[in-house]
Specification:
This protein has one domain (about 5-125): Macrophage Migration Inhibitory Factor. About 35% of the residues lie in helices and about 25% in strands. The chain has helices at about 20-30, 75-100, 120-125, and strands at about 5-10, 40-45, 60-70, 100-110. It is elongated, with a radius of gyration of 16 Å. The mean pLDDT is about 95.
């Protein structure tokens, strides 16, 4: 793993290609060297009902949550967080400049003893 989840307000959908953002975060996650390629899962969830700040419906948000199995150093996680956030921020710069929005990210560990896993994806990866 990690699981990278993008939670976003519905009004961001017209301004952001969410599939492209998912792909960007997948590739960037691999480039960090912190996340194994076979374990990365990136998905986006639209929030249809939100209340933000002063209630103005033009406000929007994108919140990126990263959950990963424990065992990595703080320094490795911090570097990966910084690289992923920078990639998202750069990708979203035109939207940030034009729209009232909040961008946030959080990385947190999953206790491996409380999170059993089964993954056969490695068995099916293309050799390259």
């Amino acid at each position: 793993m990690p699981h990278i989840m993008i939670d976003y307000s519905a009004n961001m959908e017209d301004a952001v290609d969410m599939a492209a953002l998912c792909e960007l975060l997948r590739k960037t996650g691999i480039e960090t060297g912190v996340f194994p390629m076979a374990g990365i899962r990136v998905r986006a969830f639209r929030a249809d009902h939100v209340a933000i700040a002063d209630g103005d419906p033009r406000h929007g948000y994108i919140d990126i949550s990263i959950r990963l199995r424990g065992g990595r150093t703080f320094e490795a996680k911090k570097a990966a967080t910084e690289k992923l956030f920078a990639a998202a921020k750069t990708y979203l710069e035109p939207v940030i400049a034009a729209k009232s929005m909040a961008l946030s990210m959080e990385m947190r560990d999953i206790d491996p003893e409380l999170s059993p896993k089964l993954n056969t994806i490695r068995d099916h990866l293309k050799e390259g």
